[in-house]
Amino acid sequence: MARVVVMLCAAEVLTMIGVFAFPALLPSFLVEWSLTNTQAGWISGVYFAAYAVTVPVLVGITDRVDAKRVFMLGALVAGLSAGGFALFAEGFWTAMLFRGLGGVGLAGSYMPGLKALVDRIPSHRQARAIPLYTASFSLGTALSFLAVGKLAEGFGWRAAFMVAAGGGLLGCLIAGFLKPVAPHPPATPTRLLDFRPVLRNRRAMGYVLGYAVHCWELFGLRSWQVAFLTFIQAGAAVSTGLSPTAVGTWSGLVAVAASLGGAGLATRFGRPRVIALFMAGSAAAAFLTPHAGNLPYEAAALAVIAWGALIQLDSAALTTGAVQAAEPGRQGATMAMHSLLGFSAAFLGPLAIGVVLDQAGGGASLAAWALAFGSVGAVALLGPLAIRLAR
After folding, report:
1. d(C-alpha 128, C-alpha 260), whole Å
2. So what's the pLDDT on residue 186?
3. Do 245 and 142 contact (CB within 8 A), yes or no?
């Protein structure tokens, strides 16, 4: 079991190097390409829109074919999209094209990788293995901000995206060494991409809807945290050498521990109740974080890291709950619905922040950021209501 977990977690992390490459360099792209905040929101959000459109097919078919094969295809597409961005992106429309293609790659790798894991380990060990895999998403986030930020600083953003392309190809190679496994068929066969049994599963849908709220908040923050901290740092009288991209790296690393710790607490004290408490805490942080901009830059950076940790507390618990609440043989379809709604929200969250910033006069005032992040907090308050269905 350990070998499978390590291989899939490593492959996932490598494939994710390019996921947050654009948000990590967002302040530079805003200037270089003369983007509005709304356009930047579209480029950040289209990644997850493309994910949401393609994930029902790419994850749904893992109930019928080995998920390893789907993961390898997704990792390959992720690598090609990052390489295409490095070679050909020159403005809003080309960036939209290659970031959208990257979203297809993530749709073919993230949840199919989880399905490949679930199909290869006993059910009684899944509650321990699933959080490790989902926490690797945050590790991949940290690596994305770190690698892209450092490489762009030394060699330019095109070189950074080329390295991300290599990560996707290497992830595909690692997954290729997994032994083939045939998926377990459902007890009652249905047509491919028939999600009606999933929608009727009230307990699973509670976790799915909660995950949608989680993704709106998580990807809203991760898409805009560098831009927010760049604004705060520019107005600071004194600032440390901790750059906004470095803060993104630390936020991802802290989120790994938060995800694993939150999953453990949820298992011990009751998953729905604990998740609802976590969601209430992250919603409060959404309203409070922009006001840390009145404090020294370091305090604002810590506030962003703390908010990211609070968001991530429920991540692994939500996904574990959805998988374990799924009917036997319908785990792929349940994961597909989980991702469809979750990453539809991940598309809308960054876009909504960009729209609010533009409507509030741009991102050049704390009042505008307070409204933008406050809109995220308002959505986050819906999380505890959604998770009641899982009780």
Report:
1. 9
2. 62
3. no
- Residue 73 CA to residue 69 CA, distance in Å, equals 6
In a domain, 75, yes or no: yes
Give pLDDT tens digits for 104-145. Answer: 999 999 889 988 988 888 777 777 788 888 888 888 888 888
Q: Is 282 helix (H, G, I), strand (E, B) or coil?
A: helix
The pLDDT of residue 209 is above 90: yes
Helix, strand, coil content of the chain in percent (nearest 5): 80, 0, 20
CA dist 160 and 168 (Å) reads 13
Residue 105's CATH number:
1.20.1250.20
Residue with tokens 């960036």: 95
Q: What is the C-alpha to C-alpha distance for residues 348 and 305, in angstroms, rounded to an integer?
A: 22
Q: Is residue 184 part of a domain?
A: no
* This prediction's pTM: 0.79
Any idea what the Cα angle at residue 212 is, between residues 73 and 320, rounded to 5°?
70
Would you state the torsion angle of the CA atoms of residues 245, 9, 84, 30, taken in this order, to the nearest 10 degrees? Answer: -20
Rounded CA gap, 163 and 296, in Å? 34
Cβ atoms < 10 Å from Cβ of 158: 14
Which whole number is the average pLDDT over 322-348? Answer: 84
Residue 92 has a pLDDT of 94
Question: Looking at the 3D structure of the chain, how many domains does it have?
Answer: 1
* Rounded average pLDDT over 69-73: 95
The answer to whether residue 240 is domain-embedded is yes
Nearest alpha carbon to residue 174 among 4, 357, 344, 325: 4
pLDDT of residue 146: 87
Q: Which residue has the higher pLDDT, 382 or 1?
A: 382
Greater pLDDT, 76 or 141 = 76
164 within 8 A of 82, measured Cβ to Cβ: yes
User: Distance (Å, rounded) from C-alpha 27 to C-alpha 368?
Assistant: 17
- Rounded Cα distance between 129 and 5, Å, is 7
The confidence score (pLDDT) of residue 84 equals: 97
Q: Which domain holds residue 359?
A: 2-179+194-390
Query: Is 384 part of a structural domain of the chain?
Result: yes
CA dist list (Å): 2 to 6, 10, 27, 125, 171: 6, 12, 40, 11, 18
